[in-house]
From TrEMBL, chain A:
Domain Aldehyde oxidase/xanthine dehydrogenase a/b hammerhead: 253-332
Gene Ontology terms for molecular function: oxidoreductase activity
SUPFAM superfamilies: Molybdenum cofactor-binding domain
Composition skew (Basic and acidic residues), residue ranges: 343-356
Region of interest called Disordered, as start-end residue ranges on this chain: 1-34, 343-369
UniProt xrefs under SMART domains: Ald_Xan_dh_C
Species the sequence originates in: Roseiconus nitratireducens
Classification via InterPro entries: Ald_Oxase/Xan_DH_a/b, AldOxase/xan_DH_MoCoBD1, AldOxase/xan_DH_MoCoBD2, AldOxase/xan_DH_Mopterin-bd_sf, N-heterocyclic_Hydroxylase, OxRdtase_Mopterin-bd_su_IorB
TM region positions: none
Name of the protein in its database record: Molybdopterin-dependent oxidoreductase
From TrEMBL, chain B:
Keyword entries, A-Z: 2Fe-2S, Iron, Iron-sulfur, Metal-binding, Oxidoreductase
Residues in the signal sequence: none
InterPro entries reported in the protein's UniProt record: 2Fe-2S-bd, 2Fe-2S-bd_dom_sf, 2Fe-2S_ferredoxin-like_sf, 2Fe-2S_ferredoxin-type, 2Fe2S_fd_BS, Beta-grasp_dom_sf, Diverse_Oxidoreductases
Gene Ontology MF: a single term: metal ion binding
Top-level lineage group: Bacteria
Entry protein name: (2Fe-2S)-binding protein
Record bears the keyword Metal-binding: yes
């Protein structure tokens, strides 16, 4: 039985006891969308990394208006959360009409490679009846943009696109009305085409002329009318087409300014001293060697020690000179080879809380003629975006502006206000298009560090983490242990399904398969590493365990893995993608060709499917063992996310997610020992490269009859179990770990 | 300087005492590697000179001294290729190449590819195939592909894969990157 009910999953990071930490739920997007789709079910929450001392002037302010300052930090949160005020958003806050005929659209969403800039440009161009090159987007400037929430949880497509379309349709309606008034005609007598309103043969008004009209500007200070009608899908001109990335020419010429590329006059480059291991505390340090260097600013403030200099080389020299003097007291730690035992033990010590039960598991157990028990291990992995965390901070009097790469500009704005005791109006966060996120840039470490250095230096400071820092001090996708206990009745049908996830998360924990008795449970554990969001969250881990176990069950009952799944799925979208993938892959023929069911011959095919955030994916894979290594030869993946906005960008997301998923399936695993990450580099932590690209068959099921949902995450979840199942077919040995390891 | 809240800062102007002391006391941090040199090189066809520590990575000098930020930092160990530039036509990892090593050479960066507003064929191929997602790795990919297309215009698919696998695109847009480089090689 598919389970419509979803139990809210507790946060992985328990609320801090620190009174300064905001304890309200962080699912910002949910509060504004009023819809049931879940966003980030766990989110990194922790006390501020740095406690900066108030300097003397700040101290005076605190004494004089301590309450005010504390309250204003909270006000920042209140404003962010109280976005039910969205309906009062004014057209003038969403759009700016330029006298060059360009319409500027403002949104708090960021572009991290997923294509939001292009997609939102498409949305506005569609409703405004303009070519896409007459749309400009200003993204993620907390001072200028209306707050559409952070960029996470695949929310841009189902939430921000409709919002921008509605507002754009309202703008067009208002302009139409205004033009008719100028012409002294009824709106029906006025036509519109590509930015020009015409009333009969004589009268016309272009967007650039309208932009200069002060009376119109007044009218734009109005909320969008609710009855604006958006362009129906059968009349889409721009949406639904493979529009090129609007920033493509800037990218290929090196002109795109990512956060680490922002340069301001007089700017210095910063470096921060890091502990030698997790939990290490500073016993002694001597700043003198760095202070003796010319042109170097040295800051020690609480636990923060950093340097800024005219070049990053010099800043690093200064920081290294300090590091050479440091005595560290190590924290307690354990090595990664004890990880899974430790997670499970700490989870089991909490008893049996939080189990979500349906049917009667005891009855299911009694009915089971055959059972499968499996324990699956999921390693820590890193987002490893190509651009590490970076920020440029500039203080002008008490005003702080920070350009930084984050998926959560409002949250980073709050972090800065809190850390530097600023009112919301005193801080501004701007997110230039950023070199990758994948759920890994929800925090503001670099922003805070750059701002602290800039404050001491009295000049702008640019700070970019090294790869080693990113691998060590950013956060990780949670590792986990998943246990499955499942049973088949006399007819070979599923009669029992018990599924427990230790630590990795609750996303996609429910089985989509029909089973009368069972339970699911997510258990929080004591985690050794800093952990948080990652593309598709725990859906990847839970889908891996479930789809592996389904294959084990199919094998136990001598059923074909495809037939076994189809038999247990209700008709619907998941079944449709599974059939589509299997058809395109020619599943029965490929099973026969690879000799499946006979003696394992080092070649095999496998499949898997899953759903998350309202979209559906299925993958078939063929693997081969050559020279003792696992090679993924071919992948066929079918995906469905409602009506497609941009087929080519969707394909890029599908393939990109699939390939990133191959990394987690085959090679990616964060190892640690004595409080240190032992593979903090691209030479020791292998991510997919071009040579890993298998033969691909990518299937998109466009559903114009259904609302569009996001596509950046779900296509990552089916590949690992498909490969695991193919590996079993090839070798006869079941591997229950991510990454997969040949035994 | 330590103020009453324990914040220590040593802003530039406040280093006078330290600088005075250094005149009389040997500075343990001062060694030959800090000495600046004048390094002459050609960057994108223009003669340039940098007064700098010759041990500094070429990447830093391009970005910080010449404001050529199209060349990116990705790993600092020559593994990901984001920092690739052409040194006398050879794809070179500027993050592990010191500026002292390239004195007297011709360095070409992504900014120097397009001529008179006309995209280089490899840039056009990356556009045609939309071989970009976040785009951060793209300049490095393009520089390697430029050298490949020039040096091995008959490169096979396997050769292209081997060469371009020296780069990382974390968005994993490899399907489009491969198509773009294949087009660029065929057209050269």
């Amino acid at each position: 039985m598919a389970r419509p009910h979803r139990r809210p999953i507790p946060d992985l990071n328990p609320p801090s006891s620190d009174p300064l930490i905001d304890r309200s739920p962080s699912n910002d997007d949910l509060s504004i969308d009023d819809e049931p789709l879940e966003v980030e079910r766990y989110e990194l929450r922790e006390p501020p990394r740095y406690r900066f001392a108030a300097n003397r002037r700040e101290f005076t302010q605190v004494v004089g208006a301590g309450l005010l300052i504390t309250v204003s930090a909270r006000t920042a949160h209140a404003q962010r959360r109280g976005r039910s005020a969205r309906r009062e958003e004014l057209l003038s806050q969403r759009f700016q009409l330029g006298d060059d005929g360009i319409v500027t659209v403002l949104t708090s969403k960021v572009s991290v490679g997923q294509g939001a800039r292009t997609q939102l440009s498409q949305a506005a161009a569609e409703e405004l009846g303009l070519p896409i090159d007459r749309i400009r987007l200003v993204m993620a400037d907390t001072q200028r943009c209306p707050d559409d929430g952070g960029t996470a949880g695949s929310r841009t497509t189902p939430s921000t696109v409709p919002r921008v379309r509605n507002a754009a349709a309202a703008l067009r309606g208002l302009l139409h009305q205004f033009a008719a008034e100028q012409f002294d005609l009824n709106t029906e007598q006025v036509t519109y085409s590509e930015g020009v309103f015409r009333g009969g043969d004589q009268q016309q008004l272009s967007l650039s002329e309208l932009a200069r009209d002060e009376a119109l500007q007044e009218r734009l200070n109005a909320a969008p009318s609710e009855d604006a009608s958006i362009v129906p899908i059968d009349r889409w001109r721009v949406l639904g087409t493979s529009v090129d990335k609007v920033d493509g020419p800037a990218v290929v010429t090196g002109q795109t300014k990512y956060p680490s590329d922002i340069q301001l006059p007089g700017m210095l480059y910063g470096k921060v001293l890091r502990p030698t291991s997790y939990g290490a505390t500073l016993a002694s340090v001597d700043l003198t060697p760095a202070q003796q260097l010319d042109d170097v600013v040295v800051v020690r403030d609480g636990d923060f020690i950093g340097c800024a200099a005219p070049t990053s080389w010099r800043a690093a020299k200064a920081r290294d000179a300090i590091a050479a003097t440091c005595q560290w007291k190590a924290g307690s730690s354990f090595p990664s080879d004890q990880l899974f035992d430790r997670l499970k033990r700490s989870g089991d010590s909490q008893g049996d809380r939080g189990r979500d039960v349906w049917g009667n598991p005891a009855e299911g157990t009694a009915k089971a003629k055959q059972t499968v028990r499996g324990e699956y291990e999921i390693a820590y992995v890193q987002h490893a975006p190509m651009e590490p965390r970076a920020a440029v901070a500039q203080w002008q009097d008490d005003q702080l502006t920070v350009w930084t790469g984050t998926q959560q500009p409002a949250r980073v704005h709050g972090e800065l206000c809190q850390t530097f005791r600023l009112s919301p109006q005193q801080a501004r966060v701007i997110v230039p298009d950023t070199g990758g996120g994948f759920g890994g840039k929800h925090t503001g470490e670099a922003a805070v560090e750059a701002a602290r250095l800039a404050k001491a230096a009295g000049r702008p400071v640019s700070l970019r983490w090294t790869r080693d820092e990113e691998f060590t001090w950013a956060y990780f996708r949670p590792a986990g242990v998943i246990t499955v206990h499942a049973g088949l009745d006399a007819a070979g049908d599923l009669c029992l399904w018990e599924f427990t996830n230790y630590n990795s998360g609750g996303s996609a924990i429910e089985t989509p398969y029909k089973v009368p008795h069972g339970s699911t449970r997510f258990v929080r554990c004591d985690a050794p590493l800093r952990q948080g969001s990652y593309r598709a969250l725990a859906s990847t881990a839970n889908t891996f365990a479930r789809e592996s176990a389904m294959d084990e069950l199919a094998a136990r009952s001598d059923a074909d893995p495809l037939d076994f799944r189809l038999r247990h799925l209700a008709d619907g979208r998941l079944k449709d993608v599974l059939k589509a993938a299997a058809d395109a892959f020619h599943w029965p023929r490929r099973v026969a060709e690879t000799g499946q069911g006979e003696k394992p011959n080092q070649r095999g095919v496998g499949l898997a499917c899953g759903t998350e955030k309202g979209s559906f994916v299925a993958a078939c894979a063929e693997v081969e063992i050559r020279d003792g290594e696992l090679h993924v030869v071919e992948v066929c993946q079918a995906f469905e996310c409602g009506a497609v906005h941009n087929p080519r960008n969707l394909r890029a997301q599908q393939v990109g997610a699939l390939m990133m998923g191959l990394g987690g399936a085959l090679t990616e695993s964060i190892e640690f020992s004595e409080g240190k990450i032992t593979n903090p580099s691209f030479s020791s932590y292998r991510v997919p490269r071009l040579s890993d690209l298998p033969k691909l068959n990518i299937v998109q099921l466009n559903r114009p009859d259904l609302p569009s949902v996001g596509a950046g995450e779900t296509p990552i979840i089916a590949i690992a179990p498909a490969v695991a199942n193919a590996l079993f077919a090839a070798t006869g040995t079941r591997c229950r770990s991510m990454p997969l390891r040949l035994s | 300087m330590i103020d009453r809240t324990g914040v220590t800062t040593a802003p530039t102007a406040g280093n006078a005492v330290a600088r005075l002391l250094r005149r009389f006391l040997p500075d343990p941090t001062e060694d030959e590697s800090v000495a600046e040199e004048t390094i002459e090189l050609q960057i994108n066809g223009q003669r340039q000179s940098a007064d700098t520590d010759p041990d500094r990575p070429l990447l830093d000098v391009l970005r910080e001294d010449f404001h050529l930020t199209g060349t990116k930092f990705g790993c600092g160990e020559g593994e990901c290729g984001a920092c690739t530039v052409l040194v006398d036509g050879v794809p070179t990892r500027s993050c592990i190449t010191s500026v002292g090593e390239v004195g007297g050479t011709e360095v070409q960066t992504i900014e120097g590819l397009a001529q008179a507003g006309q995209l280089h064929g490899v840039q056009q191929a990356f556009l045609d195939h939309q071989a970009m997602q976040c785009g951060y790795c793209v300049p490095g990919h393009i520089m390697t592909a430029v050298a490949l297309a020039k040096e091995r215009p008959n490169a096979s698919r396997d050769e292209i894969v081997a060469e371009m696998s020296q780069h990382i695109c974390r968005c994993c847009n490899y399907e489009n990157i491969l198509a773009a480089v294949q087009q660029a090689v065929q057209q050269s």
